[in-house]
Automatic annotation (TrEMBL):
Main location (coarse class): membrane
Protein name per the record: MAL2 protein
Gene that this sequence comes from: Mal2
Pfam families: MARVEL
Membrane topology listed for this record: Multi-pass membrane protein
Length: 178
């Protein structure tokens, strides 16, 4: 008979042996904003906000094209804020993930989607002069002159945001492969 309080089962293994410590080369806290990566992530959020505002301020004449631009802009904006907050609040040091690889995969995928969104926004802008029938007697342009100017600005900021994501991807690849 076993003494009281003991069992025939061995103690559970140490879980720290199965989960390697996180691999982080970016600093935590406000120090991340002093790095190139932190500054570029801040620019991604700023430019993404501008793209979001500019596209939303048009009548969205081509919802299939500009709907995808809005989806990419809002999703990338939200995920970039989450990614930045993970480092600002020090969660990166507590979560056992290869953050260098995660950084590369996130920014690489977002760059591809944002560059596609830029192309769709530029394509929408280029359709400015094509006619659009409202009914059998009235006809107008797809984009009014004011919306055309807003769409040009949205295309420029979408390109700038895609360049920022591309730059973040290059920095992340450099950190991951060193």
């Amino acid at each position: 008979m076993l003494p009281r309080g003991s069992s025939s089962m061995p103690p559970p293994p140490n879980p720290a042996a199965y989960f390697p410590p996180p691999q982080v080369t970016l600093p935590s806290g406000l120090e991340i904003l002093r790095t190139y990566s932190g500054a570029v992530i801040f620019l991604e959020i700023l430019f993404g906000t501008i793209v979001w505002i500019l596209v939303a301020s048009t009548r969205v004449p081509l919802p299939l094209l500009q709907g995808w631009v809005m989806f990419v802009a809002v999703t990338a904006w939200f995920l970039s804020i989450v990614f930045l907050c993970v480092f600002l609040f020090g969660y990166a040091n507590r979560i056992a993930v290869n953050w260098n690889q995660t950084d590369f995969l996130f920014h690489g995928a977002t760059f591809v989607f944002y560059f596609g969104a830029f192309l769709l926004q530029a394509g929408t802008t280029s359709l400015h002069h094509f006619p659009r029938k409202f009914n059998s007697t009235t006809q107008g342009k797809i984009l009014a002159d004011h919306e055309y100017n807003i769409s040009i600005a949205a295309s420029i900021f979408a390109f700038a945001t895609a360049v920022c994501y591309g730059f973040s991807t290059a920095l992340a690849l450099r950190r991951w492969r060193l």
